Amino acid sequence: MIKNIAIFGASSFIGLPVTKALLEAGYAIHVLSTDVDRETTLLPEGVQISEGNWMYHHDLKRFLKGIDAVYCSLSVDLNEEPDGFHAETDGLREILNACLECGIKRIAYMSSILQYNQVENDSTWWVFRVKKDAVNYVRDSGMPFTIFYPSTFMEVFESTYRKGKTIRLFGKSAFPIYFISVKDYAHVVVQSFKSLGTQDCEYFVQGRDCYKMQDAAKIYIKNHGSEKLHLKIQPMWLVKFRSLFNNKWKFIYELSKALNDNNEQFVSDDTWNDFGKPASTLSEYAKKS
Fold first, then answer.
1. pLDDT tens-digit map of 196-219
2. pTM of the model
3. How far apart are CA 187 and CA 272, in angstroms?
4. Which CATH code for domain 4-288?
5. What does the domain layout of the chain look like in residue ranges?
6. Closest listed residue to residue 114, CA positions, set 187, 173, 190, 186
């Protein structure tokens, strides 16, 4: 039976709602951090925070003693270089090795539908190769695993695309996206921990709403309470030009291009059958945000 869950990436904008949901579901949540004071201000009361560096094997083993399961919400930072250190592969390998030594019962990992849909070839963006490697590390770990492939989160309109009073998009999406709220995603994570035994599972997590990015932005703006927001769409040629001189804009260009060209199909039937349909719609989320 799983009682104690260690979370890596607990205070991120996606990790935090998952942390809260697992805590509210009655699990004991554990976090390892080099800055306990900072994590204390970010995480909800009740999370047990241990001091240490998760890149040090000794600290990891000490932290994971008595832990039943691990949930990883890792990502590639826009400042990372192709040949540099990647938390999502280099860090993940350290976590997996320590988990095996400590007898962890389950490893859960958040990937994405966008990554899953990428066809790997010589022109594949290096970030997607990193993410595909991470998925394979989890699959090959020898532990029971759960991998989640969420669609684009509704929260990106605040966390990524909002700048002041403007929702700023980069190009236009050619295909609709099944937007999911972080809250509904967190529900799937919680229910998976409650229901799974020793089997390996991979879940696609998509929402009820299906819109092209630019149409979704208009719905978000229309329903965003009393605050008046504006939509601005930057052409991709301009983003590509900026990418020639700045690594941040290169990251934005590659990610936006992949998202705009992603022909996302609905593949969440099994997830809905196991855990129910998502509760949130984009308009409802916008009214509450």
1. 778 899 999 999 989 999 999 999
2. 0.94
3. 11
4. 3.40.50.720
5. 4-288
6. 173
